[in-house]
Amino acid sequence: MSFASSPRTTFANDPAPHPAVYSGQTPLAVDVLPEIRAYRGELTVSLPLRHAGARVVTLRYEGLGGAGLPAVFVAGGISAHRHVGSSAAFTEAGWWEAQVGSGRALDPTRHRIVAFDWLGSDGSLDAVIDPADQADAVAAVLDALDIERVHAFIGCSYGAMVGLQFAARHGGRLDRLVAISGAHRAHPFSSAWRALQRRAVALGALQCDETHGLALARQLAILSYRTPEEFADRFEAAQVVDGRVRVAAEDYLDHCGALYTTRTSPVAFQRLSESIDLQALEPARIDTPTTVVAVEQDRLVPVEDSLALAQGLRGATRVEVLSSRYGHDAFLKEEAAIAAVLTQALQEAATSHTPIAIEAAA
Predict the structure, then answer these.
(1) C-alpha distances in angstroms, 267 versus 50, 68, 76, 204, 261?
(2) Is the model's pLDDT at 245 over the cut of 70?
(3) What per-residue confidence (pLDDT) applies to 347?
(4) pLDDT by residue (tens digit) across 192-228?
(5) pTM of the predicted model as reported, rounded to 2 decimal places
(6) Torsion sign over Cα 265, 81, 216, 194
(7) Which of 12, 93, 297, 351 is the most exposed place for a label (fewest CB within 10 A)?
(8) What is the pLDDT of residue 126?
(9) 3-class secondary structure, 11
(10) With helix as H, strand as E and coil as C, how does 120-189 read?
(11) pLDDT band per the 50, 70, 90 thresholds, residue 359
């Protein structure tokens, strides 16, 4: 792995005394908050991609917390990005705002929080991307930031898959792994679901309407993330509107699709969706202490796969099984339960591998 250019980083501490706007647009006085170092940067690096050969790529990262604090790398699903939580320097809400911030489970006054934009997420890399490639990209970012060892890698969904790859490929740099709703393989049923989503994008391209195809793919994805129980609670029966039957959830799905197309290119979606389906890893390659989090109602990552993962890992392992009507999206919606898991994982290392500790949470 070789760097094509030096990393460029912009550092920003909390500005002095004026109100800062945080998530929910609630004004908070800066002088009642601890000063939090926030920074963004990018580096250009040559990565040997598993299926596409060496490519020169640009990696964009963001961090919260001082350089001397234990480092925690955070990664979400394929639509997640480097901005996990707000700060006075970068005030927009992060994708995991509920978990990242002063006094929260991922507290930048106690840990150095690092995240990056997925390799290929800007649509500039039209090539097959393996989850192992993402793990190597994470290692490149850590190298650029002079982070030799990571206290924890916390991955959700695709991020959990990449976290497992990181533990297998760079385990000597990792103290512990938290894998939430992600496993060592892509389940064949889930892969079939994603293949249809990619076909929707391709069909849109044939009609010279890639945006509409991408929106439809996102709507199909939303149905796989959530559950029948949630939709039964949220939406009423279909109605006849202007001579056609309209299902109550259509407005919600239309909104999700339209919003997604404003921030994601069809190429990025296709390549990252494909990458999920390339996940294939022998759990026995991993001896890092690991917390595996499964959700009973997750239709993309069945509990059985999470248990098989845990049984195959060689390191100390804890399994947490949650119940949530939000299914695969529980890591975004079940704020208290996920915070408890993260807090425990950061505070305590599992003490044994046999038997595996399995806990169920309501």
Answers:
(1) 19, 38, 19, 12, 11
(2) yes
(3) 86
(4) 999 999 999 999 999 989 999 999 999 999 999 999 9
(5) 0.89
(6) positive
(7) 351
(8) 97
(9) strand
(10) CCCCCCCCCCCHHHHHHHHHHHHHHCCCCCECEEEEECHHHHHHHHHHHHHHHHECCEEEECCCCECCHH
(11) low
Closest CA to 234 of 222, 220, 248: 248
Q: Is the peptide bond between 355 and the residue preceding it cis, with omega within 30 degrees of 0?
A: yes
Class of domain 188-277 (CATH, top level): mainly alpha
Q: Where are the domains of the chain?
A: 2-186+279-361, 188-277
pLDDT of residue 2 exceeding 90 = no
Query: Does the annotation count 328 as an active-site position?
Result: yes
pLDDT higher than 50, residue 28: no
| pLDDT tens digit sequence for 148-199 | 999 999 999 999 999 999 999 999 999 999 999 999 999 999 999 999 999 9
Instruction: Tell me the β-bridge partners of 8.
Output: 42
Name the catalytic one among 121, 157, 190, 273: 157
Please report, rounded to a whole number, the percentage of residues in the chain having pLDDT higher than 70.
Answer: 86
Pull the structure tokens for residue 112: 């150095």
Can you give the pLDDT at residue 3?
Answer: 40
Angle of the 266-277 helix axis to the 131-144 helix axis, nearest 10: 110
Query: Quick check: is 323 catalytic?
Result: no
Domain 2-186+279-361 annotated CATH 3.40.50.1820: yes
- The catalytic residue among 107, 133, 298, 305 is 298
Catalytic residue among 170, 184, 187, 328: 328
Give the bridge partners for 27, in sequence order. 21
pLDDT band at 145 (very low <50, low <70, confident <90, very high): very high
Give 83's contacts (C-beta < 8 A, 6+ positions apart).
62, 90, 92, 94, 95, 115
What does the alpha-carbon distance between residue 95 and residue 86 come to, in Å, rounded to a whole number? 9
Report CA-CA distances (Å) from 27 to 17, 19, 30, 107, 151. Answer: 12, 6, 9, 19, 32
